[in-house]
Each structure stands twice: as structure tokens, then as C-alpha cells.
């Protein structure tokens, strides 16, 4: 019951992850592979942080 009002710390991170993945996809479609891989690497690092936070909360 008390967790009802607690905000999800990963919600903002998941939104940012989605934006990074979409940006990487657009760069790849436009032929900008180098920048696409850089953005994808940032997304992977963010995903690892999300997973670490979720494993701590369980």
C-alpha cells in the first residue's frame, strides 16, 4: 500500500533509453553508422544501469 505513492526510479531512464534507441535507428537509416554505434553504446550502458537498479529493488 505504501509503495503506491513511490515513484519508479527507472521510468525516466527507460524513456531516455527509448529516445536513444530511436535516434540510433534514424542515424543508421541515414547512413551515419559511426554515430549510430556511439548512440547504441550509450543506450547499452543505460540499459545496464536500469537492470542494476531493478535487481537492487527486488
UniProtKB/TrEMBL annotation:
Query: Which Pfam families does this UniProt record tie to the protein?
Result: DUF6435
SUPFAM superfamilies, per the entry: YheA/YmcA-like
The name this protein carries in UniProt is DUF6435 family protein
User: Which species is listed as the source?
Assistant: Idiomarina rhizosphaerae
From which lineage does this chain's organism come?
A: Bacteria, Pseudomonadati, Pseudomonadota, Gammaproteobacteria, Alteromonadales
